[in-house]
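S1.2 Input.
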Amino acid sequence: PDVIVMDVNMPRLNGIEATRRIVLDQPGVIVIGLSFASDPSVRAAMKDAGAYACVTKERAAEDIYRAIVDAVNREP
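S1.3 Output.
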């Protein structure tokens, strides 16, 4: 895939570790994190794992489209 919307809270493997593995294996894939938590440490952990951005589920309808467009249009 070109873009993955990754839930941070998953049962077996959390989204942070899944993102880390995906980005290592497929560095061109864009990952946008999605989380209930608005805690800055969650966003920072997703970005450290290689996600382009992390948006809250509360604001997903407003923010996810913009995050994907920004990531796709970013400078290489």
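S1.4 Remarks. The mean pLDDT is 90.
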